[in-house]
Write a structure and sequence with these properties.
Blueprint lengths: L1 E6 L2 H18 L4 H4 L9 E7 L2 E8 L1 E3 L2 E2 L2 E5 L8 H15 L4 E7 L3 H6 L3 E2 L4 E3 L2 E9 L2
């Protein structure tokens, strides 16, 4: 059974950190210090998709300002990729952003994930840049 949880409870944050450690630190080689930054605080909200109580996908909810959603740290466990979970995370976060009166979603996306975001209506609005040792671009989408 799939369950989607969005909150800042310690247990949900731990599930998000577990997935981020597997994907970003172990798979991609990002340092723990770079991955877990000053935005990972007790008041930060995380969305986690669970399958039978096992975390399989996550993202961190951020807002750059009162009108700009910035989903980040999105990852899906390698055994659960290509099943629409990343798409579901983004759509859920956009809906939450709309409820918070956000009109724009801005993502720092890895270059290799640009096609994924473009399918969700995002447009590249920057040149490439390096973030945590990964080539990224800035993508934006108007939220209606």
């Amino acid at each position: 059974m799939i369950q989607i949880v969005f909150n800042n409870a310690p247990w949900n944050r731990a599930a998000s950190f577990f997935l981020r450690t597997l994907v970003f630190v172990q798979e991609q080689g990002i340092s723990l210090k770079a991955e877990f930054d000053a935005l990972d605080i007790d008041s930060t909200f995380y969305i986690v998709i669970y399958y039978d109580n096992t975390p399989v996908a996550t993202a961190r909810y951020q807002q750059d300002d009162e009108k700009t959603l910035r989903p980040d740290r999105l990852c899906v466990h390698k055994n659960w990729r290509k099943q629409g979970l990343g798409r579901r995370l983004i759509l859920e976060l956009e809906q939450i952003g709309r409820k918070q009166h956000c009109t724009l979603s801005r993502i720092h996306g890895e270059k290799q994930a640009v096609g994924f975001y473009q399918k969700l209506g995002y447009k590249v609005v920057s040149d490439e840049f390096i973030e945590d040792g990964i080539i990224c671009v800035l993508l934006e989408k108007e939220l209606h």
